[in-house]
Design brief:
Blueprint (H helix, E strand, L loop, with lengths): L11 H4 L17 E2 L2 E2 H14 L1 H7 L1 H21 L2 H27 L6 H5 L3 H7 L5 H24 L5 H6 L2 H15 L2 H27 L6 H25 L8
Antiparallel strand pairs: 1-2
Length: 257
Protein backbone atom coordinates (compact mmCIF):
# COMPACT_ATOMS: atom_id res chain seq x y z
CA UNK A 1 0.00 0.00 0.00
CA UNK A 2 2.90 2.26 0.27
CA UNK A 3 2.62 3.09 -3.40
CA UNK A 4 -0.42 5.18 -2.59
CA UNK A 5 0.44 6.45 0.74
CA UNK A 6 2.92 4.32 0.10
CA UNK A 7 2.16 1.20 -1.77
CA UNK A 8 5.41 -0.62 0.92
CA UNK A 9 9.70 -9.60 5.29
CA UNK A 10 12.16 -10.60 7.31
CA UNK A 11 15.83 -10.74 6.44
CA UNK A 12 16.16 -6.97 6.30
CA UNK A 13 19.75 -7.01 7.45
CA UNK A 14 20.87 -9.40 4.73
CA UNK A 15 18.95 -7.47 2.09
CA UNK A 16 21.01 -4.40 2.78
CA UNK A 17 24.25 -6.19 3.58
CA UNK A 18 25.77 -5.23 0.26
CA UNK A 19 24.88 -1.55 0.43
CA UNK A 20 28.16 -0.01 1.43
CA UNK A 21 31.63 -1.31 2.18
CA UNK A 22 31.85 -0.53 5.87
CA UNK A 23 35.15 0.75 7.22
CA UNK A 24 35.86 0.31 10.90
CA UNK A 25 37.81 3.56 11.17
CA UNK A 26 35.62 5.63 8.87
CA UNK A 27 34.79 9.17 9.91
CA UNK A 28 31.21 10.03 10.92
CA UNK A 29 28.91 10.82 8.04
CA UNK A 30 28.54 14.46 7.10
CA UNK A 31 25.32 15.55 5.40
CA UNK A 32 25.53 15.93 1.65
CA UNK A 33 23.67 19.10 0.75
CA UNK A 34 21.40 19.25 -2.26
CA UNK A 35 20.41 22.85 -2.28
CA UNK A 36 19.68 23.57 1.40
CA UNK A 37 18.68 20.09 2.53
CA UNK A 38 20.31 16.67 2.67
CA UNK A 39 19.84 13.56 0.59
CA UNK A 40 17.72 11.69 3.20
CA UNK A 41 15.20 14.55 3.06
CA UNK A 42 14.81 14.14 -0.68
CA UNK A 43 14.46 10.39 -0.25
CA UNK A 44 11.61 10.97 2.20
CA UNK A 45 9.93 13.42 -0.16
CA UNK A 46 10.06 10.87 -2.97
CA UNK A 47 8.27 8.38 -0.71
CA UNK A 48 5.54 10.94 -0.01
CA UNK A 49 5.18 12.12 -3.62
CA UNK A 50 2.93 9.25 -4.79
CA UNK A 51 0.39 10.20 -2.11
CA UNK A 52 -0.36 13.51 -3.79
CA UNK A 53 0.61 12.89 -7.42
CA UNK A 54 0.59 9.23 -8.44
CA UNK A 55 -2.58 8.14 -6.63
CA UNK A 56 -5.02 10.41 -8.52
CA UNK A 57 -2.99 10.27 -11.73
CA UNK A 58 -2.87 6.48 -12.06
CA UNK A 59 -6.62 6.16 -11.47
CA UNK A 60 -7.37 8.45 -14.41
CA UNK A 61 -4.46 7.84 -16.78
CA UNK A 62 -2.45 4.72 -15.87
CA UNK A 63 -0.67 4.57 -19.23
CA UNK A 64 0.69 8.12 -19.01
CA UNK A 65 1.66 7.46 -15.39
CA UNK A 66 3.72 4.48 -16.60
CA UNK A 67 5.35 6.61 -19.27
CA UNK A 68 6.28 9.15 -16.62
CA UNK A 69 8.26 6.41 -14.90
CA UNK A 70 10.54 6.30 -17.94
CA UNK A 71 10.78 10.09 -17.87
CA UNK A 72 11.97 9.88 -14.27
CA UNK A 73 14.50 7.23 -15.27
CA UNK A 74 15.84 9.37 -18.11
CA UNK A 75 16.07 12.49 -15.97
CA UNK A 76 17.86 10.52 -13.27
CA UNK A 77 20.44 9.08 -15.67
CA UNK A 78 21.06 12.45 -17.32
CA UNK A 79 21.29 14.28 -14.00
CA UNK A 80 23.76 11.76 -12.64
CA UNK A 81 25.84 11.98 -15.81
CA UNK A 82 26.06 15.72 -16.55
CA UNK A 83 24.75 17.70 -13.58
CA UNK A 84 27.06 19.46 -11.09
CA UNK A 85 28.60 17.07 -8.60
CA UNK A 86 26.29 18.00 -5.72
CA UNK A 87 23.27 16.86 -7.77
CA UNK A 88 24.68 13.58 -9.07
CA UNK A 89 23.44 11.68 -6.02
CA UNK A 90 19.95 13.05 -6.57
CA UNK A 91 20.08 11.69 -10.11
CA UNK A 92 20.90 8.23 -8.76
CA UNK A 93 18.03 8.61 -6.29
CA UNK A 94 15.64 9.38 -9.15
CA UNK A 95 16.71 6.21 -10.94
CA UNK A 96 15.68 4.14 -7.92
CA UNK A 97 12.47 6.09 -7.51
CA UNK A 98 11.57 5.51 -11.16
CA UNK A 99 11.49 1.76 -10.49
CA UNK A 100 9.06 2.20 -7.60
CA UNK A 101 6.94 4.62 -9.62
CA UNK A 102 6.74 2.33 -12.64
CA UNK A 103 5.82 -0.70 -10.52
CA UNK A 104 3.14 1.28 -8.72
CA UNK A 105 1.67 2.52 -11.98
CA UNK A 106 1.55 -0.99 -13.43
CA UNK A 107 -0.11 -2.51 -10.40
CA UNK A 108 -2.60 0.21 -9.49
CA UNK A 109 -3.43 0.89 -13.11
CA UNK A 110 -4.35 -2.65 -14.17
CA UNK A 111 -3.87 -5.20 -11.38
CA UNK A 112 -5.25 -3.52 -8.28
CA UNK A 113 -7.99 -6.13 -7.84
CA UNK A 114 -5.35 -8.85 -7.40
CA UNK A 115 -3.48 -8.02 -4.17
CA UNK A 116 -1.44 -11.23 -4.34
CA UNK A 117 0.36 -9.69 -7.34
CA UNK A 118 1.25 -6.48 -5.53
CA UNK A 119 4.62 -7.49 -4.10
CA UNK A 120 5.78 -9.46 -7.20
CA UNK A 121 5.06 -6.44 -9.40
CA UNK A 122 6.81 -4.09 -6.99
CA UNK A 123 9.83 -6.44 -7.01
CA UNK A 124 10.23 -6.53 -10.80
CA UNK A 125 13.59 -4.73 -10.63
CA UNK A 126 14.91 -6.64 -7.60
CA UNK A 127 17.77 -8.45 -9.44
CA UNK A 128 18.98 -5.19 -10.99
CA UNK A 129 18.78 -3.39 -7.64
CA UNK A 130 20.81 -6.01 -5.80
CA UNK A 131 23.43 -6.04 -8.56
CA UNK A 132 23.53 -2.25 -8.64
CA UNK A 133 24.49 -1.96 -4.97
CA UNK A 134 28.13 -2.34 -5.98
CA UNK A 135 27.93 0.31 -8.73
CA UNK A 136 27.61 4.08 -8.94
CA UNK A 137 23.82 3.60 -8.74
CA UNK A 138 23.94 2.28 -5.16
CA UNK A 139 21.89 5.20 -3.80
CA UNK A 140 19.05 4.52 -6.22
CA UNK A 141 19.25 0.81 -5.44
CA UNK A 142 19.17 1.54 -1.70
CA UNK A 143 16.05 3.65 -2.20
CA UNK A 144 14.31 0.97 -4.26
CA UNK A 145 15.22 -1.88 -1.91
CA UNK A 146 14.15 0.02 1.20
CA UNK A 147 10.86 0.94 -0.46
CA UNK A 148 10.33 -2.68 -1.46
CA UNK A 149 11.10 -3.88 2.06
CA UNK A 150 8.56 -1.45 3.48
CA UNK A 151 6.00 -2.69 0.98
CA UNK A 152 6.71 -6.29 1.96
CA UNK A 153 6.08 -5.58 5.63
CA UNK A 154 2.89 -3.68 4.85
CA UNK A 155 1.52 -6.45 2.64
CA UNK A 156 2.53 -9.13 5.14
CA UNK A 157 0.71 -7.32 7.94
CA UNK A 158 -2.37 -6.94 5.73
CA UNK A 159 -2.32 -10.65 4.90
CA UNK A 160 -1.88 -11.76 8.51
CA UNK A 161 -4.68 -9.52 9.77
CA UNK A 162 -7.08 -10.63 7.02
CA UNK A 163 -7.41 -7.14 5.58
CA UNK A 164 -5.95 -8.18 2.23
CA UNK A 165 -9.00 -10.38 1.60
CA UNK A 166 -11.13 -7.20 1.68
CA UNK A 167 -8.88 -5.37 -0.76
CA UNK A 168 -10.58 -6.46 -4.05
CA UNK A 169 -14.01 -5.46 -2.74
CA UNK A 170 -12.76 -1.98 -1.81
CA UNK A 171 -11.16 -1.48 -5.22
CA UNK A 172 -14.22 -2.69 -7.16
CA UNK A 173 -16.83 -0.81 -5.13
CA UNK A 174 -18.34 2.57 -5.92
CA UNK A 175 -16.79 5.53 -4.05
CA UNK A 176 -19.60 5.58 -1.49
CA UNK A 177 -19.46 1.85 -0.85
CA UNK A 178 -15.67 1.83 -0.86
CA UNK A 179 -15.57 4.43 1.91
CA UNK A 180 -17.69 2.22 4.16
CA UNK A 181 -15.70 -0.91 3.31
CA UNK A 182 -12.42 0.87 3.93
CA UNK A 183 -13.58 2.09 7.32
CA UNK A 184 -14.66 -1.44 8.22
CA UNK A 185 -11.29 -2.83 7.15
CA UNK A 186 -9.41 -0.19 9.15
CA UNK A 187 -11.58 -0.87 12.21
CA UNK A 188 -10.77 -4.57 11.87
CA UNK A 189 -7.08 -3.71 12.17
CA UNK A 190 -7.81 -2.27 15.62
CA UNK A 191 -8.96 -5.60 17.05
CA UNK A 192 -6.47 -6.98 19.62
CA UNK A 193 -4.97 -9.72 17.45
CA UNK A 194 -4.67 -7.52 14.37
CA UNK A 195 -3.30 -4.63 16.39
CA UNK A 196 -0.63 -6.92 17.81
CA UNK A 197 0.40 -7.96 14.30
CA UNK A 198 0.52 -4.39 13.03
CA UNK A 199 2.45 -3.24 16.09
CA UNK A 200 5.01 -6.03 15.67
CA UNK A 201 5.48 -5.07 12.02
CA UNK A 202 5.96 -1.43 12.97
CA UNK A 203 8.50 -2.31 15.66
CA UNK A 204 10.51 -4.43 13.22
CA UNK A 205 10.57 -1.62 10.65
CA UNK A 206 11.65 0.84 13.34
CA UNK A 207 14.46 -1.51 14.38
CA UNK A 208 15.57 -1.68 10.75
CA UNK A 209 15.59 2.12 10.67
CA UNK A 210 17.83 2.18 13.72
CA UNK A 211 20.10 -0.45 12.17
CA UNK A 212 20.45 1.53 8.94
CA UNK A 213 21.19 4.71 10.89
CA UNK A 214 23.83 2.90 12.90
CA UNK A 215 25.49 1.59 9.74
CA UNK A 216 25.27 5.07 8.22
CA UNK A 217 27.21 6.56 11.14
CA UNK A 218 30.04 4.10 10.45
CA UNK A 219 30.12 4.56 6.67
CA UNK A 220 32.28 6.88 4.65
CA UNK A 221 31.04 10.47 4.43
CA UNK A 222 30.66 10.17 0.66
CA UNK A 223 28.46 7.09 0.94
CA UNK A 224 24.84 7.76 1.88
CA UNK A 225 23.14 4.47 1.02
CA UNK A 226 22.35 3.51 4.60
CA UNK A 227 21.05 6.99 5.39
CA UNK A 228 18.75 6.85 2.37
CA UNK A 229 17.46 3.42 3.39
CA UNK A 230 16.75 4.67 6.92
CA UNK A 231 14.86 7.70 5.61
CA UNK A 232 12.75 5.60 3.23
CA UNK A 233 11.81 3.02 5.86
CA UNK A 234 10.96 5.62 8.48
CA UNK A 235 8.81 7.61 6.05
CA UNK A 236 7.07 4.39 4.99
CA UNK A 237 6.21 3.74 8.64
CA UNK A 238 4.71 7.22 8.96
CA UNK A 239 2.76 6.85 5.71
CA UNK A 240 1.28 3.53 6.81
CA UNK A 241 0.14 5.12 10.06
CA UNK A 242 -1.36 8.02 8.14
CA UNK A 243 -3.16 5.64 5.80
CA UNK A 244 -4.73 3.77 8.71
CA UNK A 245 -5.85 7.03 10.30
CA UNK A 246 -7.35 8.35 7.07
CA UNK A 247 -9.12 5.05 6.41
CA UNK A 248 -10.84 5.39 9.78
CA UNK A 249 -11.55 9.12 9.80
CA UNK A 250 -11.66 10.26 6.16
CA UNK A 251 -11.53 7.30 3.75
CA UNK A 252 -12.13 9.54 0.75
CA UNK A 253 -8.65 11.00 1.34
CA UNK A 254 -6.89 7.65 1.58
CA UNK A 255 -6.10 7.35 -2.13
CA UNK A 256 -8.09 4.13 -2.59
CA UNK A 257 -11.52 5.72 -3.00
Amino acid sequence: MVTFLSSRSGGGGSLFSGLIRNQALAEPVQPIALGRVGLPFWASMLVVLPVFVQAPWVREQPFSSCLFGFVLLSVGVITHSIAPSRWKDFGALLVGFSGSWLAGSLFWGWLACHPVLHLPVEAFALPLAITGLQTRWRLGCAFYLASLLGTAFTDLAMALTGVMALWPAVIAASPTEASVLLQDAAAFVLTPSSLLTVSASGIIIFQLVQYCRSRSSLSMASDRGWAVAAAVLFTTLLIDGLFLSLSLLAPELSGLV
